């Protein structure tokens, strides 16, 4: 089951042909790792990482989507064991079905798209809008079955192979191949969400609203109008949600109903569409300051999943995503500086997610979430000016003692990676010698040739 | 999901199409008996189906190339839950046509596995369904059975033979109210086609095919082209005049 296929980053800037292995069973996958072909291996989940963490030019990719079987679910404890290629959408469709009283099992942590695999969610130790309450995905992982080229099949938990377990959470696919994992699902009293959207005028208002929402609201995030300047800089919409006890909601669809069928010849995201979008988005609430509703969680937590392959709208040149977190003491000043730099550059971003991470520590040696404020943005690739902006944002984040998110990155400097992830030295010892990635070579985790 | 068949046997249960269809049945709470030759694959699939909601899953081991063993296989599958509402016959093999031309034993094996074996099995099951006066016998044939073509006439002939057999069986069972469904997929991305260059609008996923099968079962259809456009494509392929047909290479 080998062949060659082109794999693209979600930002669509990188499109690279790789030899590809497509294991259909865990045994088969473990055998492929044991006989790791020269040139290096890397797992590829559902390709939702924006940059180069899931690409391995010069080496091979192991496409994980065929390992899509559930293995066991205990409805007493909520412990789910499944193969690494199962997507979060599939878990929700199968297990998050509401009981008669509206309650149900739910994934404790869900990123902004449900079309990611369990392996990918572990390897980037992803976070959701409830990061301040539940921490990152890895915190709810009880066990990982890992295939290593040098040690065969291992079970890793917090007590068994604990070092390798911590390295594999957020391990960027470099510690071996995740074959299966055991996750702890969460029981909620109502699968539907009670939501509230609130308009705010300044960043200071955002921080105030956010502090006030921390206790009562489990999902929080804000959108900010990047095109606003001067006194309007920092205006936006704050969204918060919590489970509505007794109210049922069906699982979101396994696949989007509508998809962008082809890549348009030029980006549909440009100055004009962006201004129109921002103006409309800001007026979502009409003349009201806030609006409450009770809604299914799908459209609230996964708004972008409504349109399949939306990344194609950015045209053939693709786009960059940028996400960083800055520690609490620097958060207000650094966030203001980031928005000022974006406004000055004239390169707005349609997607903007401003979100606070809480005090719950992520266990992964290279996990991205840490206490502080996180900002995520999309920029169409306009060449040198976009790269200059990204470098400027990176500099602001690093000066504030923050870090950039590898899952979203294509440009961070080696020095920024090392400063942002001080455990990188300890991590190196856990890298599987047969594995490599474009990202790992770029930031110096590995030498720059495929091993 | 609408209530589908509640007792289901999958013959060739590790086929990718059967797996996708089985998952749909499991999520609707069905009881399933999985019949196949790969013990580890069957256990993995059984676990998966249980988590997805199957009320019960049984495993039977069988090599469908062993024609003499087929009656016992049919009986055991029928007995697993004291009767069946649906039997899906999904096994098959697609060897390279050039191999079949070079090796008469391989040609005979292909004809047996893709025609004789499913025909005998369906016939054994037919007696049971006929007596129960209900249920569906579904067999996956192929669009390849619609016209003999140079690129795959060994496999295609077996599938075509199967189609004719099912036509007759349907005639026989109509009076008993038993449905006989002939499923004719086009190109499906499964283990069987992993060696081919795939992708493009003619290729379907196993799940797409499974969804079509579920709908055809509910509507008691006789012949299903899946995805639907294959019905039109094959109408044209069948209608091509011979001189023109002979100039094609597919
Ligand atoms: C619309 C959108 C919204 C998003 N929102 C968020 C968000 O809110 N929070 C967040 O944290 N992220 C978010 N992301 C990023 C996304 O969650 C991560 O990039 C995720 O890791 C993608 O998973 P994947 O299955 O697509 O893996 P891929 O992108 O294919 O791979 C990601 C990494 O996982 C590794 N990997 C995959 N499978 C395995 C395996 N079996 N064993 C070992 N390593 C493996 C790969 O080698 C690679 O390093 C978002 C992405 C999109 C497109
Ligand atoms: N894929 C297509 O494009 C396509 C198109 C038209 C029709 N079809 C038909 O669809 C059906 C399902 O095939 P698929 O596409 O799902 O491919 P598949 O995954 O390869 O399934 C074929 C199955 O047949 C089983 N099998 C073969 N010989 C067997 C034997 N002697 N005893 C027991 N089991 C045996 C295989 O078992 P193991 O798992 O143990 O190997 C395998 O699971 C087949 O009838 C095929 O001809 C497929």
TrEMBL record, chain A:
Show the Pfam families listed in the entry.
FAD_binding_4
Which keywords describe this protein according to UniProt?
A: FAD, Flavoprotein, Membrane, Transmembrane, Transmembrane helix
Annotated transmembrane regions: 162-183
Tell me where on the tree of life, at the top rank, the source sits: Bacteria
Q: Which residues form the FAD-binding PCMH-type domain?
A: 9-188
Decide whether keyword Transmembrane is in the record. Answer: yes
Q: Does the keyword Transmembrane helix apply?
A: yes
Extract the GO molecular function terms from the UniProt entry. Answer: D-arabinono-1,4-lactone oxidase activity; FAD binding
Stated name of the protein = FAD/FMN-containing dehydrogenase
Per the UniProt record, the source organism is: Prosthecomicrobium pneumaticum
From TrEMBL, chain B:
Spell out the GO cellular component terms annotated for this protein, sorted alphabetically and separated by semicolons: membrane
**Keywords on record:** Oxidoreductase
Enumerate the GO terms in the molecular function aspect: oxidoreductase activity
What InterPro entries does UniProt report for this protein, alphabetically? Answer: NAD(P)-bd_dom_sf, SDR_fam
- Asked whether the keyword Oxidoreductase is assigned, the reply is yes
Question: Which is one Pfam family of this protein?
Answer: adh_short
Respond yes or no to whether keyword Oxidoreductase is given for this record: yes
List, alphabetically, the NCBIfam families matched.
Answer: PRK07102.1
Which protein family is named in the record? Answer: Belongs to the short-chain dehydrogenases/reductases (SDR) family.
Name of the protein this chain belongs to: Short-chain dehydrogenase
Q: Which organism is it from?
A: Prosthecomicrobium pneumaticum
Lineage here is: Bacteria, Pseudomonadati, Pseudomonadota, Alphaproteobacteria, Hyphomicrobiales
């Amino acid at each position: 089951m080998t062949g060659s296929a082109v794999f693209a980053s979600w930002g669509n800037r990188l499109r690279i042909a790789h030899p590809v292995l497509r294991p259909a069973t865990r045994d088969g996958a473990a055998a492929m790792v044991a006989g790791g072909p020269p040139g290096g291996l890397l797992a590829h989940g559902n390709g939702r990482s924006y940059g180069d963490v899931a690409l391995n030019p010069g080496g091979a990719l192991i496409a994980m989507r065929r390992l899509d079987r559930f293995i066991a679910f205990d409805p007493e404890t909520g412990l789910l064991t499944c193969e690494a290629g199962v997507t979060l959408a599939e878990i929700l469709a199968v297990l998050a079905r509401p009981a008669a009283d509206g309650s149900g099992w739910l994934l404790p942590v869900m990123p902004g798209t449900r079309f990611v695999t369990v392996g990918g969610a572990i390897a980037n130790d992803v976070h959701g809008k409830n990061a301040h309450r539940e921490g990152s995905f890895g915190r709810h992982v009880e066990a990982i079955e890992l295939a290593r080229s040098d040690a065969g099949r291992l079970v890793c938990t917090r007590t068994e192979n604990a070092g390798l377990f911590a390295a594999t959470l957020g391990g960027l696919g470099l510690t071996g191949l995740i074959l299966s994992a055991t996750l702890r699902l969460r029981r909620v009293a109502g699968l539907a969400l009670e939501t509230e959207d609130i308009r705010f005028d300044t960043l200071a208002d955002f921080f105030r609203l956010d502090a006030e929402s921390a206790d009562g609201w489990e999902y929080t995030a804000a959108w900010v109008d990047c095109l606003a300047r001067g006194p309007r800089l920092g205006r936006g919409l704050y969204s918060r949600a919590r489970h509505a006890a007794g109210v049922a909601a069906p699982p979101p669809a396994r696949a989007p109903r509508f998809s962008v069928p082809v890549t348009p010849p030029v980006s549909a995201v440009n100055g004009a569409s962006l201004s129109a979008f921002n103006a409309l988005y800001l007026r979502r609430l009409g003349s009201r300051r806030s609006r409450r509703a009770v809604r299914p969680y799908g459209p609230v937590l996964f708004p972008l999943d409504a349109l399949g392959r939306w990344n194609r709208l950015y045209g053939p040149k693709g786009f960059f995503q940028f996400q960083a977190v800055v520690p609490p003491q620097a958060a207000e000043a650094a966030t203001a500086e980031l928005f000022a730099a974006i406004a000055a550059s004239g390169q707005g971003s349609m997607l903007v997610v401003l979100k606070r991470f809480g005090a719950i520590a992520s266990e992964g040696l290279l996990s991205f979430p840490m206490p502080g404020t996180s900002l995520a943005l999309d920029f169409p690739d306009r060449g040198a000016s976009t790269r200059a902006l990204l470098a400027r944002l990176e500099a602001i984040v690093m000066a504030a003692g923050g870090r950039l998110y590898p899952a979203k990155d294509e440009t961070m400097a080696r020095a920024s990676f090392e400063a942002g992830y001080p455990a990188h030295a300890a991590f190196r010892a856990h890298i599987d010698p047969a594995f490599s990635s474009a990202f790992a070579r770029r930031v110096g985790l590995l030498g720059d040739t495929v091993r | 999901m609408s209530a589908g068949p509640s007792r289901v046997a999958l013959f060739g249960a590790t086929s990718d199409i059967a797996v996708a269809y089985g998952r749909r049945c499991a999520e609707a709470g069905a009881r399933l008996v999985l019949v196949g030759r790969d013990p580890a694959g069957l256990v993995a699939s059984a676990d998966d189906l249980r988590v997805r909601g199957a009320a019960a899953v049984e495993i039977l081991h069988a090599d469908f190339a062993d024609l003499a063993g087929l009656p016992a296989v049919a009986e055991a599958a029928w007995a697993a839950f004291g009767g069946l509402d649906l039997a899906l016959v999904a096994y098959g093999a697609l060897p390279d046509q050039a191999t079949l031309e070079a090796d008469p034993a391989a040609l005979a094996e292909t004809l047996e596995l893709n025609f004789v074996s499913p025909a005998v099995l369906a016939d054994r099951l037919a007696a049971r369904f006929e007596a129960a006066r209900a249920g569906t016998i579904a067999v996956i044939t192929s669009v390849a059975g619609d016209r003999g073509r140079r690129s795959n006439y060994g496999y295609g002939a077996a599938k075509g033979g199967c189609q004719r057999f099912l036509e007759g069986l349907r005639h026989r069972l109509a009076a008993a109210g038993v449905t006989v469904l002939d499923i004719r997929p086009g190109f499906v991305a499964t283990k069987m086609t992993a060696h081919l260059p795939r992708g493009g609008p003619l290729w379907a996923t196993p799940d797409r095919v499974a969804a079509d099968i579920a709908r055809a079962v509910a509507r008691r259809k006789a012949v299903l082209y899946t995805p639907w456009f294959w019905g039109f494509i094959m109408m044209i392929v069948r209608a091509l005049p011979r001189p023109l047909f002979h100039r094609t290479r597919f």
